[in-house]
Each structure stands twice: as structure tokens, then as C-alpha cells.
Amino acid sequence: NRKAVLITGCSSGIGLALAVRLAKDEKKRFMVYATMRNLAKRETLEKAAGRTLGSTLEIKQLDVCDENSIKACVDSLPMRRVDILIMPLCRNAELGMIGPIECQTICEMKSVMDTNFFGLVQLLKEILPDMKKRKSGHIVVISSVMGIQGILFNDIYAASKFAVEGFCESLAVQALRFNLNISLIEPGPVITEFERKVYEEGLKIDLSKADKVTADMFTNIYLKNYNQIFQSLGQTPEDVAEHTFKMITMANPPFRHQANHPYTTMTNLKYVDPNGDLPIETFYKMVFEHDKVFKASLSFLKLLRWRSHNSFSLDKDKNAS
Ligand code: NAD
């Protein structure tokens, strides 16, 4: 009895890595419905899936911003059954993802929310009622550390992830009543095509609408350090896929899981100070006071990554004594 797993955004990044990881499960526990918005982009997944294609993995079209596409996809599944719904989902890295808000249009900002938040809600609306009826199911949302903490020049992206987190946190209470699990996976920086494109689009931003200080901050501080942060802290999509695999195979999965262990040093600041000033002041110091603190922080985080290399908090079931 294989579990039916529906995954969004499988043409690239985390979605692709995850679809392949689950399809190649040695125990063949999953039937993976690897979906993507544009089937013309299926080739990379087909190659990576190899022999699992047509046995434990099927590719389907799904655009979370299109109600008809959602319905057609779910209706095409045997008995419309989805045991595990996994949503690594992000609007493509066009304008509007990073940068000063003065240089982004409301239309661009709305399109980020449309995919990252409303798309996710729309898909869930199609799948949740069946899960409630069956009183079983696991919904896994690939959020971000930016769903916990805002980051300089990621205002809209972070807002979309905060929206997702608030939504899931509210729904999780109701889900308990139906024996359903909801989990958020919160990766830190992940080295994917997406991240490279976001950077390239960042270089193209027309900064003429921003004042000189803001424009300078974006170009000479944010973009300058962007690659360094990904190099020192970046995870691979396969690593995030592994965390997700563990999450869906445990008996009592946690609601939240941060997938980038060294980064928890930063996110913990939020919980240490209920006034909320500590993380903001720390980020300010890292950015402006400047190079020395920033570099020292990166070395510290690197050291932590080295120390935590083999530790994996999902190895311990939350209900295990
Ligand atoms: P990615 O761009 O490779 O993946 C995003 C996927 O979403 C793409 O396959 C894209 O086609 C798909 N998508 C976009 N609009 C869609 C729509 N309307 N319908 C269906 N699919 C749609 O990037 P990724 O890094 O693999 O991102 C996956 C998830 O991980 C996202 O939720 C992202 O926010 C999260 N995340 C990424 C990073 C990072 O640094 N890359 C860090 C933390 C969290």
C-alpha cells in the first residue's frame, strides 16, 4: 500500500530533488505525483527519475494559480487520494522578489503573494476536505527561515512566507481534530537555480526610484554579501529533501523544523527577546558595523555548521521518551 504523495514545483530545485528521493525509496513506500506548471520543463526530472518514471513516479501538470489546473490534476489521481501533500513553491525569480520596495510595483508584489500564499491555499482547499473525510493525511509546506524572521531587502518574500506560516499555524489546531499533520520545513539559504536567478535579477533592478543611501545599501552591502552568505551557509536541495523525507516517515512529525542547523543561531534571537529588538539590532550590526562583525558572524556560523554536521534533530521523534 503505497502512500500517494503530491509534490508541487518538480521541474527544479527542492521539488525535483524531493520527487526523486521519494520515488527511489528502497522500500517503495511512495507513489509520487511530481507536478509542474509547465510540462515542457519535464526533461531534467525525467532524467533524474530514471527507471522510477512510470512505476513510483508520474509527472502531472499543475499550476497552483489556476483553479481548473488544480481540479484536473487532483481529479486525475486514483480516487483523488493524496496522503501526503508537499508544497515547495515559489514564484519564479523575476522582479519583485528582492530589492527596495520603492523599485517594486504593487503588481509585482501581488504576484509573489499570488503564488507563494494564495496558490498554496487554493491547492489545499481542493485536497483538505478529502483528508478530513478520511481522517488521515500530512501536509508539508516548504517555508523558509524568512517565515520566522525578516531579512533586509526581502520584505515581500518574507511577508509571503509569514503569511504561509500564520495560515498553517491556525490550520494546525483544526487539523488535530481530524488526525491530520501539518508541518513547516524552514530551510536557510539553499543553493538552487532560483537563488542564482534572484541574484541576477537583483543586479538588473532599476534603482533610480530609490534614494542614494538605500540604493547604495542594496548594491554595496546586500548584493555584495549575497553570494558569500550562500557559500558559507547554503544547503543543497538534496539535503532539504532528506529532511523532508525524515519528516514524512516519522510517527509524530513536528509542526516546525528548521532544516539549516547553523542558521538557528539567528532565528533563536527572535525567541530570546520578546520585545523583538535583539534580532533587528543584531542584523543591523551585522550589516552596518560592518565588515568585521559580519565576517566574524559568518566564521562563527561556519564553525557551528561543522560541529552540527552529523546532528539531525528529526532523528528523535518528538513523542519518544
Ligand atoms: P525553485 O524556483 O527551483 O522552485 C520553485 C518551484 O515553484 C519551481 O519549480 C516553479 O516552477 C514552481 N512554481 C512557481 N509558480 C508556480 C505555480 N503557479 N504553480 C506551480 N508551481 C509553481 O526554487 P527552490 O529554491 O527549489 O524553492 C522551493 C521552495 O523552497 C520554495 O517554497 C522556496 O520559498 C523555499 N526556500 C528556498 C530557499 C532558497 O534559498 N532557494 C530558501 C528557503 C526556502
Number of helices: 11
Strand portion: 5-15%
The CATH H-level homologous superfamily of the largest domain = NAD(P)-binding Rossmann-like Domain
Helix content: 40-55%
Ligands, deduplicated: nicotinamide-adenine-dinucleotide
Rg, Cα atoms, Å: 20 Å
Strand order of the largest sheet: 3-2-1-4-5-6-7
Overall description:
The chain is of the alpha/beta class and 321 residues long. It folds into two domains: 3-259, NAD(P)-binding Rossmann-like Domain (Rossmann fold, 3-Layer(aba) Sandwich); 264-312, no CATH class. The chain contains eleven helices and seven strands. The protein has helices at residues 13-23, 43-49, 67-75, 106-134, 155-177, 193-204, 212-233, 237-249, 264-272, 277-288, 291-307; strands at residues 3-7, 30-36, 57-61, 84-87, 138-142, 181-186, 256-258. Strands 3-2-1-4-5-6-7 form a seven-stranded parallel sheet, with helices on both faces. Helix 2 (43-49) links the parallel strand 2 (30-36) and strand 3. It is globular and about 60 Å long. It starts with a strand and ends in a 14-residue tail after the last helix. The model has no long low-confidence stretch (mean pLDDT 90).
Which helices and strands occur, and which strands form pairs?
Elements: E1 3-7, H1 13-23, E2 30-36, H2 43-49, E3 57-61, H3 67-75, E4 84-87, H4 106-134, E5 138-142, H5 155-177, E6 181-186, H6 193-204, H7 212-233, H8 237-249, E7 256-258, H9 264-272, H10 277-288, H11 291-307
Parallel strand pairs: 1-2, 1-4, 2-3, 4-5, 5-6, 6-7
The structure holds nicotinamide-adenine-dinucleotide.
